[in-house]
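ok trying again, last paste got cut off:
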Amino acid sequence: MLKEALRDIYAQATDRDHAHRMLVRWYQLVVDYDVAEFIRLARTLSQWEDQFLAYFETRLTNGRTEARNLVIKHVKRTGFGFRNFANYRLRVL
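nice, full thing came through this time. structure:
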C-alpha cells in the first residue's frame, strides 16, 4: 500500500502544491504502518523534498543522464580495462 501511495503521487499530482499535500499524507501513512524500509525512504525523501517536488513543476528528470552513465559503467566493467582510449570511446558511443 505504501509503494502504491507513493506511485500515486507521480500519477495523480497536478502541480507542486498538490504533490506536496499528497507527500505529507504519504509521510503519515509511513508513520502509521511503521515499516523500517519505508521510514528510511521517507527520511531520504524529506531531505530531498525540494528536488523531488521540482519534478511536478517542470516534469523533467535526469533519467537520460543516469541511463547513459549506467551504460558507460557497464562497458567499463565488461571491457576489463581498455588499453586504447579510442576503442573505449567507440564502445561507449
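cool. The mean pLDDT is 93. The CA atoms of residues 29 and 61 lie 26 Å apart.
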